[in-house]
């Protein structure tokens, strides 16, 4: 939609408040990390650890998709494809070839970059709506292929993937460390020359071209970055669950990651982290409601969005805080 | 060798020949105005030069180097910057970020620099911001440069767009109706701004309907009508050209 | 006919109108002058319901329309031609014009008005099947004005109608505005081309910082030295 | 061969019917209405409830009764769509457009699992069946019911096409899609037009739901999910917001699935269908009949 | 689990059950949990196990690895003594190490893919017939019926695909095609056309009744006159309802013994209906048996210690279940699948041939 008469939250010239300063500099990140690090001291049941590890992985996914959707404005409805490619590459190489998990990382990087190029190159010229359907299609193609092939274990998937460590607490901390680095990396990319170019493209491709931004290459870069983040998250996922199957990589998963990004606040790193945590933990908190779980989840999503239309923690331009 | 050479350019939209054998050239540091009735093909000519439209035939060269068939970003990389007739700022981004876009081509900073926050990254970011402020000062932007660009009043958005183009540090600047929506006082400022840009050694091609400004500032005026050049010369000569008066100025408009 | 009283408009953090008052009488052309950012566009938007004033009142024909919705206001005959043309980009010229007649139920009447626009603006007639978005800047401006003419307004708010028009066309558009006015439509005209505007206007206001600082008849304003300096080019 | 074509066309006409509503809604407010497929599901259940309440239906009366149920259901889902827009979408008119995506997914969850809580997870079986003898046309096996359903779908679609291309209402819809703010200045009641669009789109989905229920016989609370995705696909392929394009998109998807199954087998069907669609879009990036949007700079 | 026995000694013994309650397989969950609850209520009415009451805790696995893993961890945290759930193989696989690490025995009522036992985990027991057992039964019956051109249809999930492919292997040349369908759709005419193009005389559907009903109906509408058989996932009264009673008439099924076919078990169905207001469905009887088996093993072990319960399960011989007297193979699968052939008669499944 085009602009409207309603004033928006973005880019105000209000003087920075203490809160906004606390919210948007590195303190927010450190505080978040601290919460993640201390959480196991408060509650360390296997269940809590498992859920928190999954949430952390989900944060990484959301941070990756945020590069594509939040920064660059490319609607990707099949992001889970990269997640699947990462998880399956790690899974196949560990169980079929016998590589240790860490040794699969370089391979995963290569494969996800290739996947990013293969999916992105022919399609990034498309307008956003068409891009959405094409990414959705690729997501489905990857999942169905995994479901049909033998190396990927068919419908029941791959099991017995070795974890990095037998101790779930240690694995949790490893995950948190990796995810923290990934989030920091995404944030830093967002504040760089490349990150600005992404945003220029999101706002106006023609104007960006006129300023010398090779929109096609820069979009592809966003796509590849997103793919790498997704792929690495896939490795963590495979290690965490020890078994992966096509049902983990459905369209619904893509939609959930996208929701995390939007719910938190597109383009805003703290927002995306919060969004991902909410989306992954909310269903767990609602678990005891059994039949009403997803009904309530749906209603809550609507309510949250109505209350905070720009997302829980919307992006503000860096300048707005000066 | 001229800075910009346009030779026998043709552009067709279906049955409409929007540009019909247009030729003109721009010398280093020169200010050339392109005028003509609405729909004469002025903006289309800009779009051809900057790669947004692909001319059906003709020759386009910057310092002898071919521009035809390049994508807009490649043209920009050769040293041409432009503004748009229907403003094309990055609306949700801050004014400052908009001007930073101009720095995209000369900012030396790799992905690794950004990930590791190397000194090079810090230096280039600082320079980028300083430059952005510099150009905003240069164009005399009055509005809030930290707020979203789309909240600026129209006239200020024009200025911000020029600042963005200047931050590109071009050799040739194409301005599409920079004075539209400005009142007399502001037009005087615009005139001054254009002169100062020229003072930096940047050549300018200007599309403008305000004859006062055109006559004051240009060294040469090119007149288009129905996609064809009907006059090319010094402002005073063009102003008296009967063909130009009939097609464009009207008998009383140059008052 | 239109009265704005003590209008205040706030955008998030910006106080754009500060107690602005002005009136437009029946049959009048009123010019509204002012620097960039003075609040001219905001004034028109407040009158046409595109922005909600935070204080003050807007009355049209004695009726309070301060909180009325934009489309209702348009239905009352108060029609706003917005800044920046805003033609419907993928609709053809003809469809754009027909949309102007959205509120007119009588097909024959719409056709009559559209034809009238084609008469006054032959360029649009040539381009009737072209998509609005591909017109040149000036052509789009004509289309925006023509579209407003089809609505059959009783009061027309024009935001910089001469922007991007060639000198010859400016003259003819101003004539058209005077003509529409002569046929009974009041006009509130925001113009940077003060010379042209004051030529056809009956009265005028000068805005600064969200409020009117000067008002008078067109002739008075033309004589005023401050106006002459800032808006008429000395 | 003709059988494959016929299969594809028949399924495709369902896709098209659902896709039309999707396309209209997407066309006007650029919303990926994830809940659209669930309105199809809702339609199937509303029809089921009405039929159940009406008691037994004599076989001779099946078609007229179904038609009446169809109309009632369309009204019901239409209103549900309007309510959905009012509650979950309208307040976000000025938010970034992806924000709507969240409420749409939320609404989808709420509808699906609300229905599950209300009607149970078990599939339900429609009390009437459009059973009938089949006959051969050019080597394809065709039933009268199929013809009636396709006929109904075509009528609904043609009416809609007339509405959008020929009437002021349709012009208003297209104008709102391009620029809601300026549309208001033209006197268009943007909210009302959007509401009506939702009504029509949702009613069509509801109609498809009843038709599917009566034809296939089985309904369940998740039945809208897959078809929602397919409708979205069809809408995009056809050229978003373009009614004939959307119809063609639906039919094309149906045909691709039919032939994909035949050539590569069921497990590779969607890979084939999506693969062809992706290839197609890279060659023709505006869909089948999508307007070539010439962006001027 | 084994660890927390001492402090839980007095409270109820908790059995955990992972089932799909949301997502595409959500319809199955209640069939399983209801039946398990029925068994628990019956046992509690008789005084419970070792003087303690049984309690059921369910968790949603959404048929998805991540939900399943979270759910399993939740059950572990809640101190379940035995896991009696597991439906989707893909979602059950990641839960094996979770329960394993906590020393909790798993009696898996539904999921039955070979991968579950491939790892030779001591704590994993399958009480559903395996794919190869069912495939063997299917092959036997097809041969007995004189089928020479069989087409196998599956829904591309591991369970169904496994049975179809094993049957194909056993049939050899008599299997002319395998057709995969996409579950959760309504229109299978493209698949049906495919199937018919092979001119089959026997069609075997190994997926669930939702699609099964539609497929039977669409096969018949397309003029198919040959035999149709379905796998155990399709054995539900809903199958005939969806297909249309007359259409489903004469459809065979491979199935372990069901309440309908076991002497004197009709009371069980009535009890189920009375309690839950609906018919039992797929895996209801296995779930019921899983709970009873768990109770028996705990009784035999004299407590909830995981290792002892596992030994008790391994030693189990002749415990009466729906599928017949129980004995585990060294692989921890049923020694005899006990598959029989049912047939739809007057809209309900009846025993056709015990295949003994
Ligand atoms: N993409 C297009 N498709 C069809 N016609 C086009 C397209 N772009 C431009 N035109 C037509 O080409 C002609 C030249 O347009 P152009 O924008 O170059 O005019 P201009 O000289 O800049 O006029 P103005 O002073 O009004 O801005 C116009 O008549 C316009 O309608
Ligand atoms: N959407 C908005 N959000 C925030 N501030 C705004 C917004 N729109 C306008 N403003 C501010 O309100 C003030 C008045 O703007 P307005 O557009 O009314 O000026 P104007 O007189 O029409 O200027 P111009 O001649 O440039 O068109 C300006 O300071 C502008 O920055
Ligand atoms: Mg132009
Ligand atoms: Mg203005």
Automatic annotation (TrEMBL), chain A:
It is a multi-pass membrane protein. GO terms for cellular component: plasma membrane. Keywords: Cell membrane, Membrane, Transmembrane, Transmembrane helix. The keyword Transmembrane applies. The chain crosses the membrane at residues 27-49, 56-85, 97-118, 169-189, 220-243, 255-282, 294-313. One of its GO terms (molecular function) is branched-chain amino acid transmembrane transporter activity. Its main location: membrane. It holds the Pfam family BPD_transp_2. The keyword Membrane applies. It is found in: Cell membrane. PANTHER family: HIGH-AFFINITY BRANCHED-CHAIN AMINO ACID TRANSPORT PROTEIN BRAE, HIGH-AFFINITY BRANCHED-CHAIN AMINO ACID TRANSPORT SYSTEM PERMEASE. This is Branched-chain amino acid transport system permease protein. It comes from Nonomuraea pusilla. The lineage of its organism: Bacteria, Bacillati, Actinomycetota, Actinomycetes, Streptosporangiales.
From TrEMBL, chain B:
GO terms for cellular component: plasma membrane. Residues 4-251 form the ABC transporter domain. One of its GO terms (biological process) is D-alanine transmembrane transport. It comes from the Bacteria. One of its GO terms (molecular function) is ATP binding. InterPro entries: AAA+_ATPase (IPR003593), ABC_AA/LPS_Transport (IPR051120), ABC_transporter-like_ATP-bd (IPR003439), BCA_ABC_TP_C (IPR032823), P-loop_NTPase (IPR027417). Keywords: ATP-binding, Nucleotide-binding, Transport. Pfam families: ABC_tran, BCA_ABC_TP_C. PANTHER family: AMINO ACID ABC TRANSPORTER ATP-BINDING PROTEIN, CONSERVED COMPONENT OF ABC TRANSPORTER FOR NATURAL AMINO ACIDS-RELATED. This is Amino acid/amide ABC transporter ATP-binding protein 1, HAAT family (TC 3.A.1.4.-). It comes from Nonomuraea pusilla.
TrEMBL record, chain C:
InterPro entries: AAA+_ATPase (IPR003593), ABC_transporter-like_ATP-bd (IPR003439), ABC_transporter-like_CS (IPR017871), BCAA_Transport_ATP-bd_LivF (IPR052156), P-loop_NTPase (IPR027417). Keywords: Amino-acid transport, ATP-binding, Nucleotide-binding, Transport. SMART domains: AAA (SM00382). Pfam families: ABC_tran. It comes from Nonomuraea pusilla. Belongs to the ABC transporter superfamily. Residues 2-234 form the ABC transporter domain. Signal peptide: none annotated. This is Amino acid/amide ABC transporter ATP-binding protein 2, HAAT family (TC 3.A.1.4.-). GO terms for biological process: L-amino acid transport. GO terms for molecular function: ATP binding; ATP hydrolysis activity; branched-chain amino acid transmembrane transporter activity.
From TrEMBL, chain D:
GO terms for molecular function: L-isoleucine transmembrane transporter activity; L-leucine transmembrane transporter activity; L-phenylalanine transmembrane transporter activity; L-valine transmembrane transporter activity. Its main location: membrane. It is a multi-pass membrane protein. The chain crosses the membrane at residues 6-27, 39-57, 63-84, 96-115, 144-164, 193-215, 221-240, 247-265, 271-290. GO terms for biological process: D-alanine transmembrane transport; L-alanine transport; L-isoleucine import across plasma membrane. InterPro entries: ABC_transp_permease (IPR001851), BCAA_transport_permease (IPR052157). It is found in: Cell membrane. Pfam families: BPD_transp_2 (PF02653). Keywords: Amino-acid transport, Cell inner membrane, Cell membrane, Membrane, Transmembrane, Transmembrane helix, Transport. One of its GO terms (cellular component) is plasma membrane. Belongs to the binding-protein-dependent transport system permease family. LivHM subfamily. This is Branched-chain amino acid transport system permease protein. It comes from Nonomuraea pusilla.
